[in-house]
Design a protein that fits this description.
single chain; about 300 residues; alpha/beta; 2 domains; 6-stranded parallel beta sheet
Length: about 300
């Protein structure tokens, strides 16, 4: 059993850390908001800084909101790197499971490798439900050797663990995932709004579509949330918009156009402007409804 550090115990990180404790590993925990009593009761140990987590753990997992958060936890005062230096000569492995910039990920990996340690990017898909049920999809960027070293640990948190390529490849794959998912959520919102405005029960439309070629996990889960007006996360709009910002910035650097992704980002921005940062991403339907009502008013005028 491994000594594992886990930094970032939010809506995703907390249940993921719990799966590792249940799997028999020793967990050294740190979170800005503190470690909850239930993780301590399971056997986790709380430390006051990333530095102390890295000092005690052989594998250090991070699950943080954005690129600057990962950089800070890795390299700032009392960060992971300071803890690594306290145990010089002992190679450790950093596994970042956040969704962040692939370009910055490669830079972080280079800096960690230069200190004699391994780096893995392993972002996830599946949301809080996947984290709670250990059914996440985990997309990994690492060397083959390092991947084999951490695979069994990742499998405690996910049902699908796949090495996509070298460092940064996991983050590229996650961006691709977010492009597909965001466009699918917006398309489901359009379809159900269309049905409703046409006077047809969107519940029955959703049920019918689930039996045909339009069936998808997004239609099943997010479609139900839209119909039931249940917009608690889930996956927060502010985080999905962050991922689309990364997608569009990366695409610009590559000279690639992502027009649908740009449109969805603008709808998420409208949600933020209406106080929806913490809404589930299915709440994008609210902005389409506002646009539809505006168009109807213009027509009546």
């Amino acid at each position: 059993m491994a000594n594992i550090g886990f930094i970032g115990l939010g809506i995703m990180g907390k249940p993921m850390a719990g799966q590792l404790i249940k799997g028999g590993h020793s967990l050294f925990l740190h979170s800005r908001s503190g470690v909850t009593a239930d993780l301590i009761a399971l056997g986790g140990r709380e430390f006051l800084s990333p530095k102390e987590v890295a000092r005690h753990a052989d594998i250090i997992i991070t699950m943080l909101p954005d690129t600057p958060d990962v950089e800070k936890v890795l390299f700032d005062q009392n960060g992971i790197v300071e803890g690594l230096r306290l145990r010089s000569g002992q190679a450790k492995t950093i596994v970042d499971m956040s969704s962040i910039s692939p370009l910055e990920t490669r830079k972080f990996a280079t800096r960690i490798n230069a200190l004699g340690h391994d780096y893995v990017d392993a972002p996830v898909s599946g949301g809080d439900v996947g984290a709670q049920n250990a059914t996440l999809t985990i997309m990994v960027g690492a060397s083959v050797t390092v991947f084999e070293k951490v695979k069994s640990i990742l499998e405690l948190m996910g049902k699908s663990v796949m090495r996509v390529g070298e460092n940064g490849a996991g983050q590229v794959c996650k961006i691709a995932n977010q492009i597909v998912v965001s466009s699918a959520i917006e398309a489901v919102a359009e379809a159900l709004l269309f049905a409703s405005k046409a006077g047809v029960d969107p519940t029955k439309v959703r049920e019918a579509l689930l039996g045909g070629f339009a069936a998808s996990r997004v239609l099943e889960v997010h479609g139900e949330r839209m119909i039931n007006r249940r917009f608690e996360p889930g996956f927060r709009i502010e985080l999905h918009q962050k991922d689309l910002n990364i997608a569009l910035e990366s695409a610009s650097a590559l000279g690639v156009s992502l027009p649908n992704t740009s449109t969805v980002r603008e709808l998420f921005s409208a949600c933020l402007a209406h106080g929806g940062a913490k809404w589930d991403n299915s709440a994008i339907v609210k902005m389409l409804e506002k646009l539809a009502n505006h168009e109807i008013r213009k027509h009546l005028e």
